[in-house]
Input
Amino acid sequence: MEIKSIKGQGTLWLSKLEEGVELDLLGPLGNGFQIEPSTQNILIVAGGIGIAPLKFLAKKALALKKSVTILLGARTRSGIYPENLLPREVKLVLATEDGSLGRKARVTDLLHEHLVWADQVFACGPQAMYVEMVKQCTDREVKKPVQFSLEVRMGCGVGACYACSIKTKQGMLRVCREGPVFNISDIIWQEVKI
Output
């Protein structure tokens, strides 16, 4: 198995497995993205490997006859998910920080161009992307639903240990049970450690 970036003990362990080894996995856990029935225009914001869960959301939205735009960004061309693996019915806007593919920008630099069009916004990516999105949505007084998928360290993955708890306006919530998808307005971002 070829893994370009090994970070952490879990990824190291996975990288050393022989091809064909069977794994016992538990998931998906928690709550996913929710498309509101009245939504017609969906904006998806993906940073790097954050495209993984959003690809499935895009397929679901298209099956529901929604219009989907994906803002997909990464540091370099090599970090961009292959366009041919995404549904061809989506409008895809690419950005790389070094300008090697698409626009030379961070994916959040493109957000303002699409916020007015979107009925709902969905995002998955690094914490810095979320912080910038929160700032832009706050500055522009965005009132539409914005949902983020968070990834934090989890101990048990089933809600028993509370290791993945984050501070929200409803109190401490577990990413593995009440998340991983949260509304932008519910999270106390300065307290989140991803």
